[in-house]
Each structure stands twice: as structure tokens, then as C-alpha cells.
Backbone:
């Protein structure tokens, strides 16, 4: 890194810290709504814009970041979603959209309504922060432009801060690569209609290329136009639209929303360093434009304030982390390594400021369950059965001092039930967590890892539910290489996690089944398995492409694991 780039980075870092302090101070007093004047939704647009003759709501609707009094509702206008300039075929005009929130699906009881401007500078996306609703309630929303009415969406407000709800349905997902397969798992998730969906990263992939039946439009995304076009392609998918419309999302990113395995302001390829912050700024802007995020996340150049905390009454805290924007660079490069330099205590995966924010949250928590929604594997996965420790430099294994500080933080704070929720690795895993993996003592927490929606293509199952590494990594409790998501039911007494799977992704319409179920009991440490259901024969027979029903050799499983986690192509 040359001196001029280092100086620019230091200046931007100072500006970002100041901006984050201001934004977090604002969040303490409540977010400011982006909606315009509250009016009854009509069919008239602003006089400056000609209403399109065809449907502009081709990218669907979404809601996100629920609070006790409201949530964000989102849409983006696009007449030609795949237009190469990223503008979605929209004129360079502003449009005044009407919006409605109702207590019923027929919109007979409209409780909030207003209008909001869709501006060309933000790719005609809108983010309405709806306020004044009742806590712990189900609502429905929609948008209108002239004669065009969007599809409706469903959203849920969080319980009041003093309430302990009897049940909380939460699901989490990650890694939806468009060319790798069909988003069937999103459709099944939509059918479940949970209270909240956590997306833990790799919502879209930056690379070019074809897949089985589907292909990315355009080259590798490096410009604002390219990222906008890529998001529009993904959001044109009906299964993804259904998942957005089914429940509010809490979304955080991983690497592929920008560049594979990037770390802070350091790209995967060193030659791209001088211009990487420009690319990151474009990617972050497009991410905001296409996600149901609050005003606190409006990007400022290559900076976007994404980590945040959502309280679900007294039942759960959702700590949503950003493990890309502020991380120290990977030690010794990417991949699985034996790298003593990784243990340097000055290195951090979430960055020191975010670490402090997380530890403060642990100390202040009065919740029954504290859930960390984050991107990369938290527990140890040593791939060497000898005394030598060889682990992923891109996961928390590559930042062991940072992991120890976070884990010690929840132990010292007396967090009642700490659970880490993870994406990234394209396979389902369940893992216990320790303070010291070299000398495992008592279990101090648990980790649930979701497989991908499609990334990696068709997977395979293991009848034993065990990865070869489990033989010398005692924390690893379960694994399958099938695709899917994790669906949970959280009560004051227990957290039940169901590892939901589809047998194939290269053909649409595959059935979904629960491969395994684990329970965490309130106040107890360690996972308890309550169901084990290897891939049903009926699911295999009904799939157009027969999946592998038994795992291949241990060597092949390990090779597949390492390949999927480096995933250098998008």
C-alpha cells in the first residue's frame, strides 16, 4: 500500500468513526422517517414525471429492521431490470409513490399511509420508515404509482421492550448464487412466514459466468451500474421476491456483495488496491439501494454503517455484525494455513470499535437469548489431525485473539444464552463453543451455521451427519452438504433449530425437509439433538436430477469443503 493510499485510508477511517458516533446517537432517540406527508394513497404522480404505461414494480417489495412501533418498507422501480446502465429502464425523473400499511391482507383497515419520492439518483429505490404502529403485530403494506399497484408484503413489529413473548419464529439464510441453481429454498422459507428473516451475507455474487440453467448478466461487478444491474437480476427472481414479501429482513453483508475475501480496504487482488475504495463505494451504495435499511445506513462514499442491534422484547437480542468493513487483513493470505501471525492480539475480525460495541451490548443485556447474526465460522475447524493446527484465515479461526475477547465478553457479562448464527460456508453445521480450543473445558455457547441457498450447486448428505474433521474437533456436532436454510422457534424455555434442506437446486420445485433438529435449553450450555432425518428416498425420486444420497470419501468431502470456502469465482 503506497503512502498516499494509506493517508486516504486513515482520513476516511477518522471520518467514519465520527459519522458512526453521530448515527448511533441518533438511533438512541429514534430513527427519522423517510416518508413524506401522510395522505391517503391516490393514483396521481407528481406533475414532473410521466407515469409509465407498464408495471414498474418488477423487483417486488421488502420490509426490514422491525421496531416496536414500525419497520422499513422498500421498493425500487424498474421497467427493464437488466438494463446495462443499471437504471432499470427508468427515465431520469422523480416519481411520487403512494404507500399503505394495513392490519389486514385485503387492506380494508389502512392504519398508515403516505407518499415518498423515488429519485433517479438512488436508482428509484425508496425506504419508508413507518412509525406509530402497535408492538408485536402483523401488518401488510403496498405501493402505488398511478394505476400500478405493487404486490403486497407482510411485516411484523417487534414486541415492546418490557414484554416477553411466548414464541419468536426466526429463520436465517446466506449465499444465494444465481447461476448455481434455483432459489427454491427461498420459496419454502416464504411459506413458513416467520417473524423475522436474517440474511447473513452473499446476497448476490460479483463474478461473471454461467451456471446450470441460469447465468449472470454482465461482467464482474465493479461499477455502480454493474452492481445495480446485478441486484436487479437477483430481485427479479420470484422465489426471492416471495421471501422478501413474507417477513421483515435483518440483512448484513459478507464479501461477495463487493469482492471475494476482501478485508476492510484491501481487495482480493493487490493490483486493484489503488481503486478498491471506489469499487467499495459503488457496491455499498447499491447494497443500500436494494435492501430495506434505515436512514442510519445511508452510505457515505466507501462507508456504510451496518452493524446494529434489534431487541425482541425481553426474549432476545439480535446483534447483527459486519465482519468485512473493519477487519484486519487475513494473516498469511487466504485459505487454510498454519499461521502463528494470525494470533496477534492487535488483529480484529469485526474491528476494535465494533468489538467494544458488542461487549457493551453483552453487559447491558437483560434478554433470555443473545443471538449474534454474523458471516463466517466462529468455532474451530482444524483440518489437520496432527498436532499442527491448520485453520481458515478468513474465518474467526484466523483471528483467535478477537474470538477469545468476544467469547470472554459474554462469559464475563453473564449472558444467559449466547448463540452465534453463521453463514458463508455452503453447508449446515452445528457446533459447541469453548473459550480455549487447545484445552477444551466447559461449553460456553453454541453456533448454528446455515448452508447456502444455492452456492455450490447440488450438494450431498451424510447418513451419519458428521464431517471428517469432527474426529479431532470435539466442538463439531453436525454437518450436511445439502442446500437450504435454518428455521428456529425461540421461547423463554428453549431454542429449537431445524436444518431445512432441498435435495437439489439445479431444477426448480424440489421438496424441502428437516435434515436434523437441535435444541438449546434455557440456562444450559451445549446442543441437544432431537431429530436426525437423512435425505428421504421420496425426495430423491421426485427430483428431476438424482442427488448423491451418501457422502463421498473423506478426502473428497474435505476437498469440497475447502473449495467452497475459498469460492473465488462468483
Residues:
Amino acid at each position: 500500500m503506497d503512502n498516499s493510499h494509506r493517508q486516504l485510508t486513515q482520513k476516511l477511517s477518522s471520518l467514519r468513526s465520527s459519522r458512526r458516533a453521530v448515527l448511533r446517537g441518533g438511533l438512541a432517540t429514534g430513527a427519522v422517517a423517510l416518508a413524506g406527508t401522510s395522505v391517503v394513497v391516490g393514483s396521481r404522480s407528481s406533475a414532473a414525471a410521466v407515469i409509465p404505461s407498464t408495471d414498474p414494480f418488477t423487483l417486488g417489495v421488502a420490509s426490514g429492521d422491525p421496531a416496536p412501533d414500525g419497520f422499513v418498507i422498500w421498493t425500487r422501480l424498474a421497467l427493464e431490470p437488466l438494463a446495462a446502465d443499471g437504471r432499470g429502464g427508468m427515465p431520469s425523473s422523480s416519481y411520487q409513490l403512494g404507500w399503505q400499511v394495513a392490519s389486514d391482507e385485503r387492506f380494508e383497515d389502512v392504519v398508515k399511509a403516505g407518499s415518498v419520492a423515488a429519485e433517479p439518483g438512488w436508482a428509484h429505490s425508496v425506504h419508508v420508515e413507518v412509525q406509530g404502529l402497535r408492538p408485536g403485530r402483523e401488518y401488510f403494506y403496498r405501493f402505488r404509482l398511478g394505476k400500478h399497484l405493487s404486490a403486497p408484503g407482510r411485516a411484523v413489529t417487534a414486541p415492546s421492550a418490557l414484554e416477553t413473548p411466548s414464541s419468536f419464529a426466526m429463520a436465517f439464510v446466506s449465499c444465494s448464487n444465481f447461476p448455481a441453481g434455483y432459489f427454491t429454498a427461498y420459496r419454502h422459507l416464504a411459506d413458513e412466514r416467520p417473524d423475522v428473516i436474517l440474511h447473513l451475507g452473499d446476497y448476490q455474487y460479483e463474478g461473471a459466468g454461467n451456471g446450470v440453467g441460469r447465468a449472470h448478466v454482465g461482467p464482474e461487478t465493479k461499477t455502480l451500474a454493474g452492481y445495480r444491474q446485478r441486484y436487479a437480476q437477483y430481485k427479479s427472481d420470484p422465489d426471492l421476491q416471495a421471501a422478501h414479501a413474507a417477513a421483515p429482513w435483518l440483512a448484513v453483508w459478507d464479501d461477495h456483495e463487493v469482492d471475494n475475501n476482501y478485508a476492510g480496504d484491501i481487495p482480493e487482488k493487490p493490483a486493484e488496491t489503488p481503486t478498491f475504495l471506489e469499487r467499495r463505494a459503488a457496491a455499498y451504495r447499491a447494497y443500500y439501494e436494494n435492501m430495506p435499511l434505515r436512514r442510519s445506513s445511508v452510505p457515505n462514499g466507501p462507508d456504510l454503517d451496518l452493524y446494529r442491534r434489534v431487541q425482541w422484547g425481553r426474549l432476545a437480542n439480535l446483534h447483527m455484525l459486519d465482519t468485512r468493513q473493519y477487519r484486519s487483513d487475513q494473516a498469511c493470505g487466504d485459505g487454510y494455513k498454519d499461521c502463528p501471525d494470525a494470533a496477534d492480539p492487535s488483529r480484529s475480525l469485526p474491528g476494535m470499535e465494533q468489538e467494544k460495541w458488542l461487549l457493551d451490548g453483552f453487559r447491558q443485556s437483560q434478554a433470555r437469548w443473545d443471538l449474534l447474526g454474523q458471516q463466517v465460522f466462529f468455532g474451530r475447524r482444524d483440518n489437520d489431525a496432527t498436532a499442527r493446527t491448520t485453520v481458515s484465515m478468513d474465518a474467526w479461526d484466523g483471528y483467535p485473539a478477537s474470538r477469545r475477547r468476544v467469547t470472554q465478553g459474554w462469559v464475563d457479562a453473564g449472558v444467559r444464552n449466547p448463540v452465534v448464527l453463521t453463514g458463508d460456508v455452503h453447508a449446515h453445521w452445528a457446533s459447541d463453543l469453548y473459550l480455549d480450543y487447545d484445552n477444551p473445558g466447559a461449553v460456553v455457547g453454541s453456533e448454528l451455521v446455515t448452508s447456502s441457498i444455492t452456492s455450490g450447486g447440488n450438494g450431498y448428505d451424510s447418513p451419519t451427519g458428521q464431517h471428517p474433521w469432527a474426529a479431532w474437533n470435539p466442538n463439531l456436532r453436525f454437518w450436511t452438504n445439502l442446500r437450504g436454510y435454518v428455521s428456529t422457534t425461540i421461547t423463554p424455555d428453549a431454542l429449537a433449530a431445524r436444518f431445512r434442506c432441498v435435495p437439489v437446486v439445479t431444477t426448480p420445485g424440489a421438496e424441502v425437509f428437516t435434515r436434523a433438529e437441535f435444541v438449546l435449553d434455557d440456562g444450559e450450555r451445549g446442543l441437544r439433538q432431537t431429530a436426525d432425518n437423512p435425505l428421504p428416498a421420496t425426495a430423491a425420486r421426485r427430483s428431476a436430477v438424482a442427488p448423491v444420497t451418501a457422502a463421498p470419501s473423506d478426502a473428497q468431502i474435505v476437498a469440497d469443503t475447502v473449495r467452497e470456502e475459498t469460492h473465488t469465482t462468483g
Summary: The chain has a mean pLDDT of 90. Residues 3-28 form the longest helix (26 residues).
